[in-house]
Amino acid sequence: MTVAVEHRRTAAVDPPAFSVVVPLAADEPPPEGLIASLPDDMEVILARGGSRAEALNAGAVAARAAVLWFVHADTRLPEGAIEALRAAVRREPGALLFFDLIFDGPAVMALNGAGARLRSRLFGLPFGDQALCLDAALFRRLGGYPAVARGEDHLLVWRAHRAGVPVRPVGASVTTSSRRYRARGWARTTALHLALTLRQAAPEVLAWLRGR
């Protein structure tokens, strides 16, 4: 399926400080709340259709900024998140940056948020819903998102590790929706995500160990 790329909002500066790439399903409405929460020195690119990897890569190709920020449509940015990101980019321009994660919804989702924090900070394995951010030239050097049906975010992070790219926390959180957990069941969805992560991690860990 062809990916439709839309420059939903141009930046007030040229070139933009950040290119914010938002992947969307073919029939998904634009995330107006997210767009409105972004400052005017950031361009917003909506990439619609195809697999998520295809959409993210197409959006990155259309980006004009030196820094790419991949944000899911259901992400909400708490106060201070953008300032923390700017500081992190200045502090570690060659890193793959990620946010900690807060899920909306029932209290049990706090366990998933804590798990994401542990996985990301202890093992350096953030997921795509943690609003990954990196230099555009570095993204191209890593080969972009691998063309897989799912788990492209995990594989990009592994590519970064193999290339010696530091994977660092921004030092702030973003909020994401727990709707999939509510729709499919908390235990089932958590187990599926864990199984996918372990299945993709095993060959990457072996490759990393062989390369040491």
Low-confidence stretches: none
How helix-rich are the residues, as a percent range? Answer: 40-55%
Main sheet record: 5 strands, mixed
Helix- and strand-based class? Answer: alpha/beta
At the first level of CATH, the class is Alpha Beta
CATH topology: Spore Coat Polysaccharide Biosynthesis Protein SpsA, Chain A
What would you report as the Rg, rounded to the nearest angstrom?
16 Å
- The total beta strand count reads 7
Q: Report the average pLDDT across residues.
A: 87
Q: Find the CATH superfamily.
A: Spore Coat Polysaccharide Biosynthesis Protein SpsA, Chain A
Topology:
Blueprint: E1 4-9, E2 18-24, H1 32-36, E3 42-48, H2 52-62, E4 67-70, H3 81-91, E5 96-103, H4 109-123, E6 133-135, H5 136-141, H6 152-162, E7 167-176, H7 179-184, H8 186-211
Parallel strand pairs: 2-3, 2-4, 5-7
Antiparallel strand pairs: 1-3, 4-6
Helix pairs in contact: 6-8
Keywords: Cell membrane, Glycosyltransferase, Membrane, Transferase
Organism: Phreatobacter cathodiphilus
Protein name: Glycosyl transferase family 2
Quick overview of this protein structure:
It is found in: Cell membrane. This protein is an alpha/beta fold. It contains eight helices and seven strands.
Structural features, described:
This protein is α/β, with parallel strands linked by helices and 212 residues long. The protein has one domain: Spore Coat Polysaccharide Biosynthesis Protein SpsA, Chain A (Alpha-Beta Complex), CATH 3.90.550.10. The chain contains 8 helices and 7 strands. It has helices at 32-36, 52-62, 81-91, 109-123, 136-141, 152-162, 179-184, 186-211, and strands spanning 4-9, 18-24, 42-48, 67-70, 96-103, 133-135, 167-176. Strand 2 (18-24), helix 1 and strand 3 (42-48) form a beta-alpha-beta unit. Helix 6 (152-162) packs parallel to helix 8. The radius of gyration is 16 Å and the shape is globular.
